[in-house]
Design goal:
This protein has 306 residues and is of the alpha/beta class. It has nine helices and 13 strands.
């Protein structure tokens, strides 16, 4: 009885204090200017680069999630969204770009991604705002408040036929969108021009575009080692479209696993085996440490069997 009374009093105190266990999503800080927010319903991430000149937002959602993102952003900064980048066709099709157009935000997009977008429907109101776009080919640089942001259009088919990634060199932050997710084989969007085989070439382009260099000036006095030393790749943060932020080393590990998986599946397909027999065999065991193996293996098998 005493325990029941204590529990009842605790519930009353929480209810009276206004504390909510379903707290609104908040932006997580990755570096001085880079943050990401994970939406609760679909676990999608929205990334932002916050500067004194304004905010660059990556993959904003449509309503009602957009209001949630903007509310969280208002708690982070008083600056408005001046630039919008979509990393692939899906988010670009679904987003409410009119909201940003009405606030004179500029959409930065690659020619390949723009080519995958359907034509905009005729507006009932001829005076309604239309989003302004700056279309680039391979790469463009943005320097808000002297913070360099590199926006790279993949030259290979990867998760889609128009993947875009962003890199903030000074802060060692890579915003990879749906191209990569930690510890998970990719979901290839075939309908949007993606390729399970060429995904490897796309990810290699991204990895090669991120400089991993040691400082030319050694530390005056090495700090005592209390834990295993991190690799340079572990010092580069990667924000994906889903899940927690990871690092470039995790991305390279997945890349290497995918290379080996592609080679093994190519051998199985050449030998006339089915994908089911490969997945049921011990040959697939080394790849089970990453999730989504069945889906990606079947996409690889279908492409390589041809």
């Amino acid at each position: 009885m005493r325990r029941m009374m204590v529990a009842f009093i605790f519930v009353l105190s929480v209810w009276g204090s206004g504390i909510s266990f379903g707290a609104a999503p908040r932006f997580v800080k990755v570096s001085d200017h880079c943050y990401y927010l994970q939406l609760k319903d679909n676990l999608e991430n929205v990334a932002v680069v916050v500067t004194d000149d304004g905010v660059l937002m990556v993959d904003p959602p449509q309503e009602p999630e957009l209001s949630t993102v903007l509310e969280a952003l208002a708690n982070l900064t008083a600056k408005t969204v001046r630039w919008v980048v979509f990393t692939e066709p899906g988010p670009a099709r679904n987003a409410d770009t009119r909201f940003f157009a009405e606030r004179n935000a500029l959409i930065l997009t690659s020619a390949k991604l723009q080519a995958l977008m359907p034509p905009e429907p005729a507006r009932q109101n001829a005076n309604a705002a239309s989003p302004a776009r700056l279309i680039f080919e391979g790469q463009m640089h943005l320097f808000p408040s002297n913070v360099e942001v590199r926006i790279l259009a993949l030259q290979h088919k990867a998760r889609t036929g128009g993947d875009v990634v962003l890199y903030v060199p000074a802060e060692k932050v890579l915003i990879a969108g749906g191209l990569y997710e930690a510890a998970r084989y990719p979901d290839i969007d075939i309908a949007a021009g993606g390729s399970a085989v060429d995904w490897l070439d796309g990810v290699k382009q991204v990895i090669d575009a991120v400089p991993v260099m040691k400082s030319a000036i050694p530390a005056a006095k090495p700090a005592p080692k209390t834990e295993p030393e991190k690799t340079l790749e572990e010092g580069i943060a990667v924000i994906s479209a889903h899940g927690e932020a990871s690092n470039l080393q995790n991305m390279k590990d997945l890349f290497e696993s995918c290379k080996k998986l592609r080679a093994d599946i190519a051998k199985a397909a050449k030998a006339g085996r089915t994908c089911d027999s490969f997945l049921a065999s011990s040959a697939a065991d080394p790849y089970r440490s990453f999730s989504n193996l069945d889906s990606y293996a079947r996409q690889l098998f279908e492409a390589l069997a041809k």
